[in-house]
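writing this on my phone so excuse typos. first protein, seq and then structure
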Amino acid sequence: GFSMVKRRVIVLADAHGDPRHCGEVDALTGYVTKEIAVVPILHANRILGVLEVMNLTDNRRFTQSDVEAAERVAVVLAERLAR
């Protein structure tokens, strides 16, 4: 919700240590979110949703390049969703 409300990218290196992370979803699903990148999907200054990428392989951390790639995907998603 924070990324959506603030309309900005959020990267949490320790999801469970951040109050913005909803740990209840992990508890319900059994999935353990360690790290997360959240990118708003915007079109014509309208928020359409967010793209979330969690737990990169090999315990990698999100890099600026990873975030930029997610932002490019969000632009394409926004164009498709706006149709």
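second protein below, same order as before
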Amino acid sequence: MSVHVVLVHPEIPPNTGNIARLCAALQVPLHLVDPLGFQIDDKHLKRAGLDYWPWVELYRHGSLDDFLRDRRAEELCFFSTRARKSYLQVAYGPDQYLVFGPETRGLPRNLAVRFPSRFFRIPILESRVRSLNLSSAVAVVVYEAMRQLGRLEGAEE
């Protein structure tokens, strides 16, 4: 059992490639929700993921509604700069879906209405910085979730 990374309408191939590489390294499934802002065979996507794509457990979903259809609210954690609660306040569980929006606009606002208690942010100390890069944000949250689940213990050997 593991956490899952979900990218809703990702737009920048190198970000998705970097996230795929992270998912391969940590054995975390990656879910891509269409439409994507690039072709899945994009050379920049492949370059960023290097030769690790064969080790990525990859799922594609035709729409956000398709992805959400079979998920319970408790399984979902949405990440947004507009959220009030920190990602550090989450007690991550196995089979938790960590959901991130597109780089230029974030997650649809109606999700915050539908799942108000399931929205979290990564604190940023400098008010002039709007957000972290998507691949950095995913890495911060995934490593915290994996730490809480004890999945990193013994990995330093």
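The two ends are 22 Å apart (CA to CA). thats all i got for now
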